[in-house]
Amino acid sequence: MVTTDSRRGRVALMVAHCAGMVDLVALPVWVGTLIGRFGFDPQQAGGLATLFLAAAVVASVALAPRFGRLPRRAVVAGGFGVACLAFVGASLRDDFAAMALLHALAGLAAGSALSVTHGTIARGANPHRLFAIVGMALGVFAVAFFAIVPPLVAASGGPALFRVFGVVMGSAALVALLAFPHADEAAAAAAAVPAAGGAAPIPPAVWFGIAGISGMGLVQAMTFAFLERVGSDRGFGVAAVTAVLVALSFVNLFPAALAALLEKRWSARAVLIAGPVLQALLVAVIMQSGAFAPYALAASVFAAVMIFTHTFAFGLLARLERTGRALAATPAMIMTGAAVGPILGGTLVKSFGYGSLAFAAAAVAAGAVACFSRLPAQAAVSRSALA
User: Fold this and answer.
1) Which among 69, 78, 98, 131 counts the fewest CB atoms within 10 Å?
2) What gap in Å lies between CA 199 and CA 190, rounded to an integer?
3) Looking at the predicted structure, is the pLDDT value of residue 297 above 60?
4) Could you tell me the residue ranges of all domains in the chain?
5) How far is C-alpha 81 from the chain's CA centre?
6) Could you tell me the end-to-end alpha-carbon distance of the chain, in angstroms, rounded to an integer?
7) Using CA atoms, how far apart are residues 170 and 179, in angstroms rounded to an integer?
8) pLDDT tens-digit readout, 39-71
9) CATH number among 3.30.230.10, 1.20.1250.20, 3.10.25.10, 3.30.1380.10, domain 7-183+203-376
10) Long-range contacts of range 185-189, CB-CB < 8 Å, 24 or more positions apart?
């Protein structure tokens, strides 16, 4: 039997995580390509990305409560298979209506697959470490993506991006079909004590954690979607901005591994409170700096903050809610904010300029900190904390 602790199972989870979280890596190239290669304005380009993310949220919200009853391998393989077909279709069209429909279909399918993937990770023996492992895989994927895709798009045109997405989704579907793991059902059954007549309710503290991660996802997407465009519009040059994206991908190799090493040494709640503050400060530098060096430094570490913070959040929430239902909604946590991010960012940029994103990020960060402050400290996680 393939399990979350087996080599095959972990490889399948890594591939599924990379495919399902492709927006976390590709969003600046995605939106930049829609603007620069397809001729959409910032609001339209942000809207297409938002359709993908919003559809993923809908799928995650619908599937998460039913996680324990789903045929997981079939959902993951089928979801990524449908997303593959949708992206291949998008590579053949350039009109907004068709692109919108195909983005929404891809989001529904990929979101379904990712929801089951994250629920399965949450039921592993050590969710924090397993989520860190798939996070490291995402960092490796990001390096390959930025090394290959921007030059490919420059040489072959915008449709090449969607063909790449199709290959990524199709590969994930095949790997899932062959090796997607079964969850650790014994551990899950022991941890999930049913309430009278049904499943135990999700602890209130978990909902605050979900809201905080959604806020960070909003800031991440709102900023990341225009990371490439702000550099280009400031006159830093295509080569320089591409180098920043490559540097960002290399930096992203390390935060998940570092989070795994620091799991027992740092308070999860302290990390979660600091994360939104640092994220907002980086947004201010990226969006308001007229010099290349500050922009490049802040942009290079921007995504790493989200990866590091989210790894601690995943581990803490998995201990607070052991059935896997809450973390099966991880795509909804991240993508609820992320779905709003590109279109909100596009609207703000179009109306008020790039600097407005810094003020929006500061406001959202304040809310996220307030939510995370309601979570118990890592050392205090106990049955009393779940009440």
Assistant:
1) 69
2) 13
3) yes
4) 7-183+203-376
5) 19
6) 36
7) 14
8) 998 888 888 988 998 899 899 888 878 877 889
9) 1.20.1250.20
10) 185/123, 187/123, 187/125, 187/322, 188/68, 188/123, 188/322, 188/323, 188/324
